[in-house]
Write a structure and sequence with these properties.
The strands form 2 sheets. A 4-stranded antiparallel beta sheet has the order 2-1-5-6, with no helix packed on it. The chain has a two-stranded antiparallel ribbon with strand order 3-4. It starts with a strand and ends with a strand. The longest helix has 9 residues, at 25-33. A hairpin with a 4-residue loop joins strand 1 and strand 2. It is built from 1 helix and 6 strands, in the order E-E-H-E-E-E-E. It is mostly beta strands and 73 residues long.
Length: 73
Amino acid sequence: MERYKVIFEFNNGQEETSYYTENPSSRINDWLERENSQWVRLENAVINLENVNVIRVGLVKINGESEEFIEWV
């Protein structure tokens, strides 16, 4: 099953990962265009975009507990 994997890399080097069934690029653009609210709710976390250094989106194929990288989006 293919999923979009979004990796948030924070200023301190830690990462938070979230998975989506549809391409989340427009959702991420909406988050980045916000001016007042910098908080974003993910599956298992709420993050402050002011603490995020890099956001990466990749397409992965999930096979049970393992995943295979397909391409960066």
